[in-house]
Amino acid sequence: MTARLIVEADGLVKTFGKVRALDGLDLSVHSGEVLAVLGPNGAGKSTFINLIATLLRPDGGHLTVGGYDVARQPAMVRRLVALAGQSAAVEPTMTGRENVQMIARLFGQSRSDARRNAAAVLERLGLTESADRLVRTYSGGMRRRLDVGASLVGRPAILLLDEPTTGLDPRSRNELWDVIRALVADGTDVLLTTQYLDEADHLASRIAIVDHGRVVASGTPRELKQRAGSTVVEVHVRDADSLPRVTAALQVLGADAPSIDVPTRSVRVRLDVATQRVFAALRPLDDTGIAIDEVSVRQPTLDEAFLALTGARQEEVA
Amino acid sequence: MSLPIALPRDNAAGLIVSAQQIARRVLLNFIRTPQYVVVGTLQGAMFLLIFRYVFGGAIATGGIDYVDFVVPGFITTGVLFNAMYSSVGMAEDMNSGLIARLKSLPIPRSAVLVGRALADTGLQFWSLAITIGLGFAVGFRLHGSWQGALAAAGLVVLFGLVFEWLFLLMGMFAGSAQAAQGGALIIFPFTFVSSAYIPVATMPSWMRGFAENQPVTVMVNAVRGLADGHGAEALLGHPTSYFVIRALIWSVGLIAIFAPLAIAKYARG
Ligand SMILES: Nc1ncnc2c1ncn2[C@@H]1O[C@H](COP(=O)(O)OP(=O)(O)OP(=O)(O)O)[C@@H](O)[C@H]1O
Ligand SMILES: [Mg+2]
User: Fold this and answer.
1) Number of neighbours of residue B117 by Cβ within 10 angstroms
2) In a domain, B127, yes or no
3) Which of A106, A143, A151, A161 to mutate to test the interface with B (most CBs of B within 10 A)?
4) How many angstroms separate the CA atoms of A10 and A63, rounded?
């Protein structure tokens, strides 16, 4: 790959008083890849995005965007990036169309270009029917889509999406994913943040897991999953006495030892990627007649991925 | 290190277009929020009626009628009450995420504030028209020349712009709409401890020192002199030009201080 670097962070530091929101973050993003920055609340995701968008200035380290230094050439950077921030950035007393047209005009487009491009963006986001309604009458999901639309209308080289689907219902979330995928197919470089592993998995070609202002793991979704264990099998039993037997049966499935949680009477194991024998492993349980309340086969939660990838449990966020 | 990405051409709006777009947004926001229009107008009307008819009878204003005395004061201080909305609006914007987007756009740093100042100046015209109308309705009459009246109106709009910058700055520092509203209480000493509603001669001497020299008094007296002619000059003890010149100096000085401060504050975040 000879793709050029679009974002290069080197020992990036940003402090707010005593809080080190970014604490020596190193990360490079190449053109053509979609990077998802994954991390819990307070990890520093928004801070990183806001530094790229030149809303904040770094306190240490280096950050270049498209080859321009954010501290010394912010005006250049602003011509390359567009931001859909974490809180909706639309004017509620204007219509959807007026909002998008305003941003298009601010990107230097002529009146007629702005009108045409706004219409195209609204169409793409499925907002044509409600385009002429005031945004204060929109649902949260529609606002979010409009927000993304407003950042698209300037045809940015690099699109920054800070938790684009937080607060959306599953259907709106899927629709937005489709839009993002289509943009990527058109050649826009996308950098997004998310708290959801499955979202990163669906959209990103590379994931960087951030915690306490540093990248703690990065790689393709496939690589990370191999390290995290792609799937978790969890068995809830009716009677705590049967936990050891269930644990023994699940042993063969796991990349490492199953973990037992006595209060919930459950056993959990991260599935070895090589294992295809989930049902074969569960069958003996059936034969022994252990009363089982629930068997679930699911993606690891963010917490579990953290545990596997960093060897440390993420701090409880109150 | 790789070579920089070639910048797209013509994807950055200049100051005029961007300020105009921002101004349009502020105006639409005002017009489409009926409670601003209705509450703002009613509040002004009530205030004027109270002064004119409740307090007015008890206040002696020498050779001129109280209504002629108070209406220019009321119109001039109206500018400060409007500026309160600018401050709250700015504070709201800072928290809304919209400012974050605007800051990430390739537009001049001053565009957002210049746009808002333009819009708010437009709104000053609107509110000036209403207060002048109200003033005539409660019996105010011009006693100066019509040129003087026009100049008075021009001064009021200028004063609006002066306080606009101060209040935008306060709005940005406030951090929330509530705090901005609290900060805007500062207008009460400046409007009430001034010559706007009563002659300063009736105040205790320690207060009079402040009242006579603070900018609101100077501005009110400039407008009053232009609107009321000789009667006002006799009451105020100075020719109108005395106040007009001082009011202009105050205006230029305050804008020269607060406009750059506001723009710098905005750019630094
Ligand atoms: N303007 C600010 N002033 C003070 N502290 C801040 C500010 N912005 C962020 N922080 C702190 O910096 C840290 C990182 O915050 P950031 O918003 O980047 O996290 P995040 O990963 O985006 O979290 P979330 O998932 O909740 O959006 C947090 O501890 C936060 O409290
Ligand atoms: Mg965030």
Assistant:
1) 23
2) yes
3) A106
4) 6
Residue type, B59: I
| CB-based contact, A154 to chain B, within 8 Å | yes
Q: Tens digits of per-residue pLDDT, A121-135?
A: 999 888 999 999 999
Q: Is residue B213 part of a domain?
A: yes
Domain coverage including residue B113: 33-268
The tally of domains found in chain B comes to 1
Give the residue whose CA is nearest to atom 16 of ligand 1: A44
How far apart, in whole angstroms, are the C-alpha atoms of residue B63 and residue B110? 47
Q: Which of A55, A66, A90 sits opposite B104 (nearest CB)?
A: A55
Q: For residue B9, is it within any domain?
A: no
| B15 belongs to a structural domain | no
Looking at chain A, the whole-number percentage of residues with pLDDT higher than 90 is 44
Distances (CA, A) of A76 to A54, A191, B87, B166, B227: 10, 18, 31, 31, 52
* Residue A213 near ligand 1, beta carbon < 6 Å: no
What DSSP designation does A164 have?
Answer: T
Q: Which of B141, B128, B132, B156 is nearest to B64 (CA)?
A: B141
pLDDT of residue A303: 63
Across A174-189, average pLDDT: 88
Across the A:B interface, residue pairs with CB atoms under 8 Å apart total: 115
Q: Smallest Cα–Cα separation from A25: which of A65, A62, A77?
A: A62
Q: For ligand 1, is residue A43 a contact (CB within 6 Å)?
A: yes
For the segment B194-206, what is each residue's pLDDT rounded down to a tens digit? 998 989 888 999 9
Read off the pTM.
0.82
Q: Does the distance separating the beta carbons of A102 and B25 come in below 8 Å?
A: yes
Higher pLDDT, residue A281 or A239? A239
Query: What mean pLDDT is predicted for residues A96-125?
Result: 94
